[in-house]
Amino acid sequence: MARDKLTDYDGVTASNNTDIGGVSIAEGMLPSNVNNSMRELTKQLGAFADGTDGVDVLKLQDDTDTNSIKLQAPSSVTADTTFTMPDGDGSADQVLKTDGSGQLGWADRHANPSLAINGAMTLAQRGSLTGQTGTVYTACDRFLSAEVGNTVTTSTQDTDVPSGQGFANSLKIDVTTADASLPANGVFLVITKLEGQDLQHLLYGTSDAKNLTLSFWVKSPKTGTHIAELFQNDAGYYNSQAYTIASANTWQKVELTFSGYTATAFDNDNGYSLGITWFLAAGSDYTSGTLSSNTWHNTQANRAVGQVNCVDDAANNFYLTGVKLEVGETATPFQHEDYGTTLRKCQRYFAVLQNTTSSYAGGFGFCNSTTKTKVCFPLGVALRANPTVNVTAATIDIRNNGSNTAATSVSAAVAQGTNLYLDVNAASGLATNHACTIDPKQNMTFDAEL
After folding, report:
1. 410 near 422, Cβ under 8 Å?
2. What is the pLDDT of residues 431-440, one digit of tens each?
3. Which residue among 346, 377, 406 closes a domain?
């Protein structure tokens, strides 16, 4: 039978290979040196085919013989290894994974953890917020808006989400007062901020600074160029990149990879070190330069070149969800957290003591004078820093020695561990050195945001 494929050849004994495609190369058919050379060559081909011999580089040429892909073995191999390919081509976004014995199979990519908190917009402790201007936190925890100009917005946690991605909520920025003609310093941003002590593994400030990949789902009222940015706050440097919205008011996934910043390390503390920024609009102070994509810089004019104006019409709505910032150059699938985990993460920065009845004891302590109490509020989560307490003092009852006394002020908030200590003061009437409880008649909020 004619030998017409590599596996037909004997990879051990050259003399057994007596023909090529039916053409005899047996002894005597050609000059001896030609026969021997051809039979030796077919032996090597046979050995290559059955895996007993091979090459250190396998070169695969393209159809035009212009470029190639090379598969190369390590310079030193400690043991023979056989990889067996799987059947079929797997599913979209899958990768090859070994079982440890050389059998390869298709598997879903392992999802990296996200540095961003509440990226699925699961938590909205503040509720819907209207008439927002300046720099304020939005409805969805850990995300703030920063505005210079005349734009007024309402922020809400919305149920408009990309289909089939597992998200239940998005952040909605609803333009209620438009700014179609931004001043030079005009801008509208959505920002989330990260603590420096959570970023030390990124090795910023060294030659080994890690690349980061930002992925998110966005629904913009405008087509065209939009800007997303990382901000190294400890150095004052930006890395700005453009993405293009192909269809207005349509959910689109965006993936951007940012090079690590080698010049300055993050401070190893609980302060603001890294920001993720989405531009919705920008005046000429931000757009008059040159956009150098994925380049760290400190030039304001280069930050948002080409950015469209998403706040130029009161009918405009901007939606964001699925925010993920991860180490590496590839976006991996979004990791959906349980509600409790996201809640605990967010309460480090903002906590709400909710009151739904008129007899709820929010804190306990003692009266150290007739006008002052020292009170402890157990929060369950350690706050990032001493918070700003937001409550109307007159809505707080101080229960002491069998009677209620209206509070006049709240001060001296000190966070220690998972407890918060406050001075709750009254005009008079407290029983000194007696225990007390604090009963707020409205929600109290504790703000320790970056």
Report:
1. yes
2. 999 999 998 8
3. 346
Are 301 and 359 in a shared domain? no
Give the phi and the psi of residue 338 in degrees, each rounded to 5.
Answer: -70, 155
How far, in Å, CA of 342 to CA of 329, rounded? 25
C-alpha dihedral sign at 204, 207, 208, 212: positive
* pLDDT given for residue 245 in this prediction: 98
Q: Do 136 and 128 meet the contact criterion of CB atoms below 8 Å apart?
A: no
Assess whether pLDDT exceeds 90 at residue 13: no
Q: Is it the case that residue 340 has pLDDT exceeding 80?
A: yes
- Contact in structure between 273 and 199 (CB atoms under 8 Å): yes
Q: Note whether residue 120 is domain-resident.
A: no
- Containing domain of residue 175, as a range? 129-346
Radius of gyration of the chain (CA): 33
CA distance 215 to 258: 11
Q: Computed from CA positions of residues 411, 416, 417, 422, in that sequence, does the dihedral angle turn out positive or negative?
A: negative
Q: So what's the pLDDT on residue 51?
A: 66
Query: What is the number of domains present in the chain?
Result: 4
